[in-house]
Structure formats: structure tokens, C-alpha cells
Design a protein that fits this description.
By secondary structure, this protein is α+β, with helices and mostly antiparallel strands. It is built from 6 helices and 16 strands. Helices cover about 20% and strands about 30% of the residues. A hairpin with a 7-residue loop joins strand 10 (about 185-190) and strand 11.
């Protein structure tokens, strides 16, 4: 049984909506409330109840077992680069990288197993074959997978020594005085919500994100972010930490859909790595996806 504490500073919000922007799906939130597993001051709540400022809710739930294995599925892939050692895919927004509780299939791993057959590294185990790094479900863009253990070890080492680099683009709230900057702040698990990360000195790891302005809009900024480390939710946490949460981020932002997006406006646009067999530098780039360019169009003229 897992306990999650969810707090709110706002009044008048439906409790299922509050839980939905705190990491639960709406259907899961409804089930937990109906089962009496969401309480306020020890009293089970109803789905129609509204929040009060300062409320603290306790959510009790059974831990879902992690899927034991992944099966091949015929899911189309946008392959940007492929050879006998590595494959680089332009992951669409909304696709989960590997099977996990609540997402047993329909993932990138399921698609890779169908596309690559048995030629994926086994280092990640049966549900993460070939996976060297990850992207959040609502983050689109380039992700690399290894087709054998030697390639996997090489790419993992490059992640550690930063010879494998990644460049992201995002839309964030607010404007910057400077044209570029660096965020250095340690990231660890949120003290009360295990699904979230936070800038914290407790049980955290060093994290650094470099950012630069691409374009300025009224109330929003299009930025490019370069990861010097690869912590969970790093860009989302760091941008929120400096007062510029990502547009549409339901966890670290306003918690409400923005400009038609439910989920962060974040795209992994570039990846550079040293090929594990040839030793040559490989630099790949993809265009901004339609959802991203549609958001930019909704922001109005560039200032």
C-alpha cells in the first residue's frame, strides 16, 4: 500500500481534478475516490467535493506490479537513424518509453521489439531492452536505443562523461532579462509525492541545465535547453524552479491545460554521440513537431 499526500492552495477545485494534475489519471482518481481511499482530515471524500485552501489529502492505493515482460507490437516508428548497433527514433508525444504500471503495452519498447526483432541490447532487462535513456510520455523527440550490449555500454558511458549530448526546445511561462543562463540545482524525489521530483538538498544529485532564448512572445518564451546531466524531469523541474514552468506542464506548472495542451511543451530536437563501433561523431536533428509549431502560432507575434 502506498500513501501519497496531495496539498492545495486553492479553493473551489474538484478533488478528482486536483488528483489528475498531481500525477494520477482521471480514471484512477475517480476509482480511488469511489473506493474511499482519498481522505481529508481522515474523512473519505466524494468526487463532487470541492477543495478548500490549505486542504491536505491522503491517497491510499495498492502498488501495481511492474509488467514482467514486453511483447512486440506493430506500432509505426519514425526512424531517424539505424544501423546494426544503434537506432534513433523520433518519439511522438504521448508515447510511453517502456512498459510500467498503468502502461503495460503500446510503448516504444513494444514497437522496437517488433521493428528490431531480437537485435536489442539485453542490459535493460525484459521490459527495457535497448533503452539507454528515457523521455517523459508527453515529451517528443529523439531517443537512442542500443542493439547489442557493447553499444549499450558505450552509450551509457557517453551519458556519464557527457560525450552523448542532447538539446531540447520548450515553451516556458514568462520572459527572461538575459538571452542565456545556467541552472545548477540538485534534484531528488519530492518529500511528500514520490511521483514528482524537486530541487532539494536531501537525497539529491547534482544537476545542470543550460538555456538560451530562441524567441520571445507576450508572456511566454521559446527556449533551447542543453542538458549537462540527465536527471528525471530535469528541464521541467529546473525551469519551474527559476519561475518559468513549461507551458502545459500539469505537474510542475499551473496544473491546467494551456494553449490546448495537457502536458509539457518539450521536444528533444538534437542528439550527438560517438558511434560505438566506428568512433565517428554522429549528430542528428529533427524538426519541431506540429503540436509545438501550433502552440507557437497561438502565442502571437514574436516581440
Amino acid at each position: 500500500m502506498t500513501e501519497t499526500i496531495v496539498s492545495t492552495q486553492e479553493s473551489g477545485e474538484r478533488i478528482d481534478a486536483l488528483l489528475a494534475r498531481s500525477g494520477f489519471t482521471r480514471s484512477a482518481a475517480a476509482r480511488l475516490i469511489a473506493a474511499g481511499q482519498v481522505t481529508r482530515n481522515g474523512v473519505p471524500v466524494k468526487k463532487s467535493d470541492l477543495t478548500r485552501a490549505g486542504d491536505e489529502f491522503l491517497v491510499l492505493r495498492e502498488d501495481e506490479p511492474e509488467p514482467a515482460s514486453a511483447e512486440p507490437e506493430d506500432i509505426p516508428l519514425d526512424v531517424v537513424y539505424e544501423d546494426r548497433d544503434v537506432i534513433v527514433v523520433n518519439k511522438p508525444r504521448g508515447m510511453v518509453v517502456h512498459p510500467a504500471p498503468g502502461h503495460p503495452d503500446g510503448t516504444l519498447v513494444n514497437a522496437l521489439l517488433f521493428h528490431c526483432g531480437d537485435s536489442l541490447s539485453g542490459i535493460g532487462g525484459e521490459i527495457r531492452p535497448g533503452i539507454v535513456h528515457r523521455l517523459d510520455r508527453d515529451t517528443s523527440g529523439l531517443i537512442i536505443a542500443a542493439k547489442n550490449d557493447e553499444a549499450h555500454l558505450s552509450l551509457s558511458a557517453q551519458l556519464s562523461d557527457r560525450s552523448l549530448s542532447r538539446v531540447y526546445e520548450a515553451v516556458v511561462r514568462g520572459s527572461f532579462r538575459e538571452d542565456s543562463g545556467v541552472v545548477e540545482a540538485p534534484i531528488g524525489r519530492h518529500p511528500t509525492d514520490r511521483k514528482r521530483m524537486a530541487v532539494t538538498d536531501k537525497n539529491s544529485r547534482f544537476a545542470r541545465t543550460r538555456w538560451e532564448v530562441v524567441a520571445r512572445y507576450r508572456g511566454w518564451t521559446h527556449v533551447r535547453c542543453i542538458l549537462d546531466t540527465g536527471r528525471t524531469h530535469q528541464i521541467r523541474v529546473h525551469m519551474a524552479h527559476i519561475g518559468h514552468p513549461l507551458l502545459g506542464d500539469l505537474v510542475y506548472g499551473t496544473g491546467k491545460p494551456e494553449k490546448g495542451l495537457e502536458g509539457q511543451c518539450l521536444h528533444a530536437r538534437e542528439i550527438k554521440f560517438i558511434h560505438p563501433r566506428t568512433g565517428e561523431s554522429v549528430h542528428l536533428e529533427t524538426a519541431l513537431p506540429e503540436y509545438f509549431t501550433d502552440v507557437l502560432a497561438r502565442l502571437g507575434p514574436i516581440q
